[in-house]
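Reading a protein record of the kind used here takes only a little practice. These numbers are not coordinates but entries in a learned vocabulary of local backbone shapes. Here is one such record, which you should read through line by line.
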Amino acid sequence: MTVSTPGLSGLRRAGALAVATLAAVALGVVPSARADAASGTLPIGDADLTEVTTSRVLADGVTLTHIVRGTEPAPADQINTTSRGPWVVNVLTIDPRRARGHLKATYGPNLGQVEKTTDLVRASGALAGVNASFFTFTASPLYPGDPVGLGLYGGRLLSEPTTEPGEVNFVVDANNNRALTGKLTWSGSVRNRRTRAVLPLEFINHPPVVPAGCTASADQRACTEPGDVVQFTPEFDSVTPAGVGVEVVLDRLGCVVRTATTRGTTLAVGQTSLQATGRDAGALLTVASRGCLDLTSTLADQRGRKLPLRSGLFGVNGRHPLTANGQIVVPDGGSDSFFARNPRTIAGTTRDGKVVLATIDGRQTTSVGTTLDETAAVAQALGMSDAVNLDGGGSTAMAAEGTLVNHPSGAERAVGDALVYVEGRYHGGH
């Protein structure tokens, strides 16, 4: 389940971080069969469904649990309505007090492209992982992996949270595996050190939108409609997005290397660029003239407190919180298909600080998937005091020990990024 992003510029400023209470329940490590709802784990479907749970230890403090609720395949025409299931859930539980590795977010060779979850897990040398952020997907053929919301990797903010009310973030510190769920806000600016002229920075690593009334104008400086001001880093792609507008390339000290009245260039190591469209094109050239620039980029929680972008901090985006402080908090989705039964990926924390990653297979007679309400009930039953709904649908995937653990609805989809658990201490990078 990906997010299509027409009008992406309208989504790019976020709300606030509700810092989650770290929370928890330990999943059993002894294989067991449960035949009634009273002793079962999952509070979905009819009470008389048989539920079978098996678990195995992947490493110290890391457990993989497989739950099947319901024994009979669903009729193909009842997948969205049946109360008999079946449901197949895979759960990865990480106990920071015992685990010797670290959890982090990772993407492929560059942020703008996509890779399968299994490939991201293997490439990072991870023991296990799940798909994570919502990403641009088919809305951008050139940059399908572009995150639609927060993308924080090793302390580098490569995609800012949006203002979309439904966006919720999952943030983890790879140095200690402590995780937070909630909503972040972001602000950024460009400031000339000599003249002190300031221009708001609107986005990070998203192709700027050319104003509708200026698409025919080769020189955007003549445009009277506001456009976008965007920072690009080398992690986004080997070449910055091409098109009308202006581009200013900066060295590692923030000093101007070159300017151009069209967009699209290759960035050398240590360089970043600023692109602008519409009337902001002229404003950027004015601010960038005569001197070096300071770029500010600030994440903050709901109380306005700055979240330091230190090494080891990772963050991904989801849509809608599932639980908060142990309570189900899913909004009313009405008839929106997003809230109906789909494959799901969940990230959350337990009261005693464990991190739980889970997938629910869906759109299949062998596992029907869950509504967002049912997803929250599963998260709560698995002990997630604070949990978020990550990208799902065809993106839902979990890999462990080099192989795909779940059964995606169709061929495994290439995705924007993944949350992965890697053995050993964190030593930098994404």
Remarks:
- The first strand starts at residue 32 and ends at 34.
